[in-house]
Amino acid sequence: MTKPSKPKPADTITPVSFKSTLEEKYLAYALSTITARSLPDVRDGLKPVHRRLLYAMLQLKLDPKSGYKKCARVVGDVIGKYHPHGDLAVYEAMVRLAQTFAVRYTLVEGQGNFGSVDGDNPAAMRYTEARLTDVAMALLDGIDEDTVNFRPTYDGSEDEPVVLPAAFPNLLANGSEGIAVGMATSIPPHNAGELCDALLYLIEHPDCKVKNLVTRVPGPDFPTGGLIVEPAEAILAAYETGRGGVRIRAKWEKQDLSHGMYQIVVSEIPYQVPKSRLIENIAELFREKKLPLLGNIRDESAEDIRIVLEPKSRAADPGMLMESLFKITDLEARFNMNLNVLDAKGAPRVMNLKDILQSFLDHRLEVLKRRTGYRLDKIAHRLEILEGLLIAYLNLDEVIRIIRREDEPKPLMMKKWNLTDVQAEAILNTRLRSLRKLEEMEIKGEHGALSKEQKELKALLKSEEKCWLRIADEIKDIKLRFGGKNPLGRRRTQFADAPVDREINIEAFVEKEPITILYSKMGWLRATRGHGVDLSDIKYKEGDEAEFQLEGQTTDKLLLFSTDGRFYTLPCDKIPKGKGQGEPVRLMIDLDSEADIVAMQIYNPESTLLVASSGGKGFIVEAADVEAQTKNGKQILNVPPGRKASACIVAAGDHVAVIGENRKLLIFPLSQLPVMKKGQGVTLQKYKDGAMSDVKVFTLKEGLSWTIGAKTRVETSLKDWVGNRADAGRLPPQGFPKTNRFS
């Protein structure tokens, strides 16, 4: 007999398209991530890991009235029976359900270290203990009464619920966050009492609009409190579309101290902002001198949050100080809403507020009908037994005789009195002590009560109106247990008027005082207090001397213009003061190593400036357009290779005077220069060779002035030099400085 030949390797390989296989496998992975990991079910608001945790704890009899069990025991049961994933991931999910600062209505009651609002990690699962809360029991209520479907676990050894009965509106009450493949969800927590009011209204008005529901659910209710400052119109739009967001701010108050000082105490911070990271962030900004008036920050928190902010000056307005903090710190945060959930059929979709509430009510109707059907089956079974027992009491002597004398009493009794198998079995299992007249009366009473209940339940199933009334009663009970009259149910997040976007006035943070600003040729910047200072006492480093000197206030901003055409802005209160040499300006701004400061002036946002390069090109720019927000500065004048920016002057007047290195003077109307935001500009004066020496804006009627030593000369007869922009010009009037500069 010949042995069959082994198939060649090529015979066992089936050619497939790599593209189609990749699409198929990735789609399977994406669906698994969406349905089994990341998105919550709209009915109970839980992801599979949370549902399995609660069910495993119920199986361990960890109800609120029982004792605690180690979290390691719970996690072991979950990953061993229902959720074959990492133990740390399951434990982290369990910890979050117990954190009062992360979940509005905790589903797990923890004992031990479960982390803190500072962002501290919880203790290991072998040290912590847990049990279910009343809210979790409300989610599980009726799970053993055929209210929901069960499915086999991953290994087929046990069954797990597909969804929980969920008498509590958990999805919106606790919210949910998750990132799937190609989609995500972000649902904020809400107040359970307000949700119950909206559900009751929706039962009475099934055709209502979302705006009617928003009057009862005005916005999220975060576990950490805070103030919602989002306009009501934006919140309504988010609930209508299922997408949007809310701005939430820390809650603070001003506390007056002695000598006119005060301090600000922050008692509530935005949701999901770790307190320690928030304080570190504020301290870092303070060190970087981005918080002009903040003098100190202290964390005096114990069980409650208490962050103390001390101002640098009592003259600062506390409201403006907090506005500056809200602008650049996590004392104001934004929670983006994306109401993306799995519907009753397991399909992901974005729902609005009404859709989510209606889906919860539809689930409760399904649970009610299934629970009623389960109860009717139990009543029918019990009535069948009771009817058989009543027959036995009516024929007690004959029953006893049959049991004593017959080898097979069960079929004989069934035939004699037309009993069912269940009834005959119940009679045979009846104890002798139950054969009393009193017991017979109790059976008749129980039979009557069950018959009445059976009639009521059948009427309930036949009437949609009665079903909704029963559901409304259940919702009222939930509101009574977890609503506003309960300390747990009181609204924590309040509403405040939306802030008006406005520029933070630096004068509110800095005490105003006169200063004289000094800049040296070697690039050192400093300031001395007062105006009219005797500059003869000012000392510079060896080989250094004064370059620019101007007077201003500590509340002003200093505008610097460099040879590479960039503008830089410095707050004057940040300029070093005292008798020292100051600081190199390159430490204050990111000035290019090849560039130098060519002009310096006090920033006036209402003014206009003329900027020009040594090549004789320039334009007019609004001062408000040159203010730089960062140390990198702001590029305004584009300078061609071989040239440099050489002038930045206030454009106050009606004519421009330009003089070149060739000693030719040209005067033309200021209106001939364009107003630009940035660029290379247009030609001011035409040169064959050489470059521009100086430029000045003046009023023609007042004449053109220049300085020679300590004297100033004014020339009013300027007809011979007035022309058009880009002309060559002519030699200046007799007596014009040989330096070719106006000052």
Write up this protein.
The chain has 743 residues and is an alpha+beta fold. The chain has four domains: 24-187, Topoisomerase II, domain 5 (Alpha-Beta Complex), CATH 3.90.199.10; 251-330, Gyrase A, domain 2 (2-Layer Sandwich); 364-487, Orthogonal Bundle (Topoisomerase, domain 3); 510-721, DNA gyrase/topoisomerase IV, subunit A, C-terminal (Neuraminidase, 6 Propeller), CATH 2.120.10.90. The protein is built from 17 helices and 34 strands. The chain has a four-stranded mixed β-sheet with strand order 14-9-8-17. A four-stranded antiparallel β-sheet has the order 10-11-13-12, covered by helices on one side. A hairpin with a 3-residue loop joins β25 (608-613) and β26.
